[in-house]
Amino acid sequence: MKKHIAIAAGLAVLSTSAFATKSRMEALGQGDSKGSYFIQDSRNIFRNAAAVNDMTNYVVTEWGSTAGRNPEGGFFRSAGQFNYGVYLNSDVSAATHTNGTNTGALSEDDRITAFIGGDMGVKWGASLFRASSEDEQTVAHKKEHDSMGVGLGVMSGPLEGFVNFTFKDEAKGNTATAGSKSDADAMEVGLTYQWMSYKFYADYSKNTQKVTNVTANAGTAFDQDVAVITVGVGHTQEVSASSRLFTNIEYLNTKSEEKIALTDDKASKLPLTVGFEADATSWLALRGSVSQVVLLNTEKNKAGKKKSEANTTNVNAGATLNFGKLKVDGMIGTGGNGTETATNAETGSLSLDRLMTRVAVHYWF
């Protein structure tokens, strides 16, 4: 009897810590912006809007500003047959937002995303994001940026499907030229299928970006298409009542074509990731991962010359402090200079005053 109670308690803690944040995704070696194809997590709503039906009644805040991370957060509620949410300042986008070579142009700022979904035998969901900014003070002419996009998704038994579109990502005016313009648009379509403890997935994404009417001291013309094909399989193994092992391997095929500079780069890679998550105590969950490109690691330029990407091995670790309905997620920092970058994140120098970096707080009610 006591054993059954202990197992039930462990499952309860593990299931609540599973609905987490960017910090959890990073620690498990998954993409933090759109969650995981096969691990259940609150970030998955940014890939498949139908996941809003699985993640309801919580508030989340994410600390940012380092290593390209935004401060962001939102809330999600259920209301009768519907589930909805509003999220502020997410940095998710298939478009680049860099404005290419359009120096001094405004990038996207203060995005707001709305979600709604329901379950009518088939779970469905939709999202809409919008961002707008302007500047008439920095230079003599006006600079402005507007972006908008939608996401649609469904879940029916073991099958899931989703599409995401960024149909406007436009910046007008840069540091020196009022007539400069950056245009970007993006699309993503994907399917996943659950078979026992395995999840198979396929994803195709493409973004285009064009920069026109720039001057010599404020960038150059730019016209680029980037297409990515992802095919993979993820496996979740319940090691015990309070721990699990995550493994996934995927094939990535990337093609980047710049039409003005006449470059054409292609890459084929096979990254393997192994992650784990366990409850150390009733109030602490620990997780970590290691990933590396294996067997297939080829980058080729237009001239047909090849090279392999160097230093593809990455290790990550993180933790969740569990205070009932309130949870604090964080990466376990290993840099010693107050920053989190690719060059210092895996030095092995663990700072005791920085055990929880890239922190997120979420409350479930």
Can you walk through the features of this model?
The protein has 365 residues and is mostly beta strands. It contains two helices and 17 strands. Strands 1-2-3-4-5-6-7-8-9-10-11-12-13-15-16-17 form a 16-stranded antiparallel beta barrel. The protein is globular and about 60 Å long.
Radius of gyration over alpha carbons?
A: 22 Å
Low-confidence parts, pLDDT < 50 over ≥5 residues? 1-18, 335-344
Oligomer: single chain
Shape: globular
CATH class annotation:
Mainly Beta
Through-space gap between termini: 30 Å
What percent of residues adopt helix (DSSP H or I)?
A: under 10%
Mean pLDDT: 83
Order of helices and strands: HHEEEEEEEEEEEEEEEEE
Level-2 CATH architecture: Beta Barrel
The total number of structural domains is 1
Number of helices: 2
Major β-sheet profile: 16 strands, antiparallel, barrel
- β-strand number: 17
